[in-house]
Design brief:
Layout: E1 5-9, H1 15-24, H2 33-40, E2 45-50, E3 53-63, E4 67-75, H3 84-92, E5 100-106, H4 110-115, E6 119-132, H5 136-140, E7 141-143, H6 144-147, H7 149-156, H8 165-173, E8 177-184, E9 187-196, E10 201-208, H9 211-224, H10 229-232, E11 242-250, H11 254-262, E12 266-275, E13 287-289
Parallel strand pairs: 4-5, 10-11
Antiparallel strand pairs: 1-2, 2-3, 3-4, 5-12, 6-11, 6-12, 7-8, 8-9, 9-10, 10-13
Helix pairs in contact: 2-8
Length: 296
């Protein structure tokens, strides 16, 4: 029964409610994700209401002419089982047009996504735990602004299946986001961003030419956030600062899996990256941490 469900575009004013649902599901949303998400595609977020009350949500965010990403598929618990989620999905999906659509599907929904035409690409596992900086990263890594936006965006394009300059500008500048790049012999060899979240800090993206470079960038990110009281207050503090870290690691990168294991991070849940069609090639060996499961 969905006759009373009204589905409209979501606005920034709706974000606190969607963010709260994400937190309730254990997805650990970033504190300032909303403005960054809507910047990429302001028309790509949908909310279903009954009597003016938000009860469902989904996003279908377009990146260029060839790729779209579906996320934030949520229904308020007391309204589940009534078809509201599926109705919201059906209203939003045409936003993608002829683009290939990607999503990160939780285990319980993967069979339903396959029935809808999504095909498995790889697993992604979320790892979490306490990290401290040993101080080695900050000396080698620099703030993203020093690397130059164009160069960082070009590197990002090697690791993500579509251009996303608008999103990156917002992501790098958002409050509570720490970004670091690593330059070796005049060449950018990786970059990463760490952001305050509901529970600790989330790392994403973490892209690098090698595990060694990824570890240097990660150490710099932890040290860079050490002055954030929210960061140090959520976890163990070392000589250069530290706290609880969450990172989403694709199983296509064995060196990334070895890195998080060596750091003592523990798996907490998994999703499957799924697509409805082909996407452009990315360098999976450079992807040590996904940007955000909500937007790909």
């Amino acid at each position: 029964m969905t006759d009373s469900l009204q589905i409209t575009r979501a606005s920034l004013a709706d974000w606190p409610i969607i963010q709260g649902w994400c937190a309730d599901e254990g997805w650990n949303p970033g504190d300032h994700d909303g403005p960054c998400f809507l910047a990429q595609d302001p028309e790509g977020f949908f909310v279903g209401r009954i009597g003016g009350e938000p009860v469902s949500a989904v996003s279908v965010v377009n990146y260029g002419d060839a790729f779209s990403f579906l996320g934030l598929y949520l229904v308020k618990p007391e309204f589940r089982g009534r078809g509201h989620g599926l109705a919201t999905w059906k209203a939003a999906l045409p936003r993608a047009g002829a683009r290939t659509v990607g999503l990160d599907g939780v285990v319980a929904q993967q069979d339903n996504y396959r029935k809808s035409g999504f095909m498995d690409a790889h697993r992604t596992v979320r790892y979490a735990g306490e990290l401290t900086s040993d101080g080695s990263g900050p000396a080698a890594a620099v703030p993203l602004a020093e690397a130059g936006f164009a160069e960082v965006a070009d590197y990002d394009a090697l690791c993500f299946p579509a251009p996303r300059a608008v999103f990156l500008r917002e992501w790098f500048a958002a409050p509570g986001h720490v970004g670091r790049a690593l330059i070796v012999d005049g060449r950018l060899v990786g970059y990463g961003v760490l952001r305050a979240a509901h529970d600790g800090h989330r790392v994403g993206p973490l892209f690098a030419d090698s595990r060694v470079y990824a570890e240097v960038i990660l150490d710099a990110l932890v040290a860079g956030a050490a002055g954030d009281a929210g960061f140090t207050g959520r976890g163990r503090v070392g000589a250069a600062g530290g706290g609880r870290i969450v990172i989403d690691v694709p199983e296509t990168n064995r060196e990334a899996l070895a890195m998080v294991a060596a750091l003592g991070l523990e798996p907490s849940f998994e999703v499957a990256r799924m697509y409805t069609g082909p996407v452009r090639d990315v360098d999976h060996g450079k992807v040590f941490g996904m940007t955000t499961l909500e937007l790909g």
